[in-house]
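__Protein archive entry__

___
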Amino acid sequence: MRSCSGNFEKSLENFMYPDAFKFITQSCKNVAGFDGNTNTYATPSLALKIGTTLQKCLKILISKGIETNNRDLQTRAEELSKLFEINWTDDVSSNALKTLHEAKQNSQKGLLPLANDAKVMTEYLRHEAETHANTLQGSASDCEKRQAWHKLYEICLCQTILFNQRRSGEVSKMTVEEYSKNKLTNDDGELNGYLTKLEKDLCRYFYRTEIIAKRGRIAAVLFPRQVKENIDLLVRSRNSLTTCFNSKYLFPTKSASSHIRGTDVLRSIAIY
C-alpha cells in the first residue's frame, strides 16, 4: 500500500480510509501475484488471507473508535468495511477462489484410484481380517492375541469407513451402545413392498445402525456380515485381552481414553 500510494511513512491504520480502498485492493493483488491477463493469482490463498486479516483490523478500529468516543475513526472504519463487503468479492476473492479451484482440479488429475487399486486394498483388508480373527480364536499366546485384537480393530474400522464412504471421524467416534443397536437393514420388513428382489436380498446381508454425524445429524452405517462378525468377536474378547473394556468407543485406542483416528488407520494401511 505504501508503494501504491507513494507514501512510505504511513502505517496500516493510516490507510484505513474509504478513499484508500483502491490502494488496498491493488496492493493485495501485487503481493499475491495477480496476473491481469489471465485473472489468476500466483498465491491465491494469500489474497484471501489478506482480505480476512484486513477486515479483522477494521473491526479492531471500529471497537477502538467506540471505546475512545472517536466518531471519525469509527465512521471511516465502518464505511471502509462496507466497501469490503460490497466490492472485495468482485475485485479480489472471486478470482482467488477460481484460481484455487482450478489448481485443485489440475493437481488431482491422474491421482484418482483405479478400480484395480480398490480391489487390491479390499482383498488385502479381507485377508488381514481373516488372519487376525483366526489368531484371536486360535491357540496363540495372550501377547499375540492382544496384538491381533488391536490390529483387527483397525482393519474393521478401515473396512467400515471404505464401505460406507463416510467421514472417518464419524465412524471412528461410534460407541459400543450405538453399535449394539444394529440390525438387519430391513429386519422389520416395513420396506418389503417397495424393494426389488435384489434389494431384498441385499437387505438380508447388511446390518445397519445409526450414529450421530456432523452437526448432530443422524447417519446410517452399514456392516457387511463378515465385518460385523469380526467386530462382535472383538467386543466379546475385550474383557480378557485388553484394558479397553470400560471404553465407550467401539474402536478404542490402546489407552481406552479415546478412539482410533480413522485417517491415521487409512493412511497406515494404504502404505502397505
Observations:
- The mean pLDDT is 83.
- The radius of gyration is 28 Å.
- Residues 29 and 36 are 9 Å apart (CA to CA).
